[in-house]
Amino acid sequence: MRHLLQQAVDRRQSLPDGETDAFRVFDGAGDGLDGLEIDAFAGRWLVSTRDAAIPGGMLDALRDTGRTLYHKRLDQHQKESPAHLSGPPCTEPFVIRENGLLFEVSFSSGYSQGIFLDQRDNRRWLIDATTPGTTLLNTFAYTGAFSVAAAVPGAITTTLDLSQPYLDWARRNLELNGIDPDGHYFCKGDTFHWLRRFAKQGRRFDTIVLDPPTFSRDRDGRVFRVEKDYGRLAALAERCLAADGTILACTNCRQLDVAGFRRQLSDALPPGFRIEALPMPPDFTGEPYLKSLRLSR
Ligand SMILES: C[S@@+](CC[C@H](N)C(=O)[O-])C[C@H]1O[C@@H](n2cnc3c(N)ncnc32)[C@H](O)[C@@H]1O
């Protein structure tokens, strides 16, 4: 076990660097131990396992690093905050750095920590592709990490999520990066509802990010399932897209492969879109579960 951990760390020699200190240190089968993942958050390590316990030899090797360690059970049904294992506990939120940007992370605010590290390269693309004065619509925005990536190079962002606490977190993330959130828009509510409303109002965005949960229910009880409904979501978003705009469409649904995802979107959208598949960051060496398509006219 010790050698697997060392090998995984050696494989990621280039991380952390001055720009990024949050990344995947160990990625399950990709690093030789299926069912175990380790993410680094500014030096603290979060160990996630499918089984209830961390294998003994690995736990010893992890403790010997002397780091702050937390443990999370990967369980769709019991979504709990990570448990403290060793090292100084993180009782307060803290800040991580990614692509030179700052984000608030918490080990005590629930199952997710405030940023999905598998989206790092997509946020890098957004930073590089954004020009000042353009507009971004970030749907299913969670803590607004995509909004930060677009706002820093000068976009006017609209951050949309069902949850007010996440929208507040998104505001704090903008502030952390020296951006006044009052110069940006925040919409609380259902993405489908807002997309219809924006389309009716003639609102158009240069970039739209779609990264929905695999399953969701709108306020009228209508169910959305990525496997069959993503096309409907993309078609609604297209009605709010500027003439030369780009949609970044993502899903981590393991039941949908990239070919099926691409087919759903090309069937739903008007002809003329160029569709490019984007890879996961290289520290994610295991199953490439995150599918990302960039759709541009
Ligand atoms: C998988 S996270 C999105 C991650 C985010 N795109 C990122 O990269 O940080 C899902 C988010 O969608 C929000 N959500 C779920 N159903 C929604 C809906 N129907 N409309 C708007 N937001 C929704 C949840 O509150 C949660 O913040």
Short description:
With 297 residues, the protein is α/β, with parallel strands linked by helices. A hairpin with an 8-residue loop joins strand 1 and strand 2. Helix 3 packs parallel to helix 4 and helix 7 crosses helix 8.
Main features:
binds S-adenosylmethionine; Transcription Regulator spoIIAA; seven-stranded mixed sheet; single chain; 8 helices; five-stranded mixed sheet; 16 strands; 297 residues; alpha/beta; 2 domains; Rossmann fold
| Spatial strand sequence of the major β-sheet | 10-9-8-11-14-16-15
CATH fold field value of the largest domain: Rossmann fold
Q: Any idea what the shape is?
A: globular
* Assigned CATH architecture of the largest domain: 3-Layer(aba) Sandwich
Helix content: 25-40%
Give the SSE string.
Answer: HEEEHEEEEHEHEHEHEEEHEHEE
Query: Approximately how much beta-strand content do the residues carry?
Result: 25-35%
Description:
This protein is an alpha/beta fold. The protein has two domains: 2-94, Transcription Regulator spoIIAA; 116-296, 3-Layer(aba) Sandwich (Rossmann fold). Helix content is 28%, strand content 29%. It has eight helices and 16 strands. It has helices at residues 2-11, 56-63, 120-129, 145-151, 164-176, 191-201, 226-238, 258-268; strands spanning 22-27, 36-41, 44-49, 69-73, 83-86, 94-98, 101-105, 135-138, 156-161, 185-188, 205-210, 215-217, 223-225, 241-251, 274-278, 291-296. Strand 2 and strand 3 (44-49) form a beta hairpin. Helix 3 (120-129) packs parallel to helix 4. The longest helix is centred in the middle third of the chain and has 13 residues, at 164-176. The protein is globular and about 60 Å long. It binds S-adenosylmethionine (SAM).
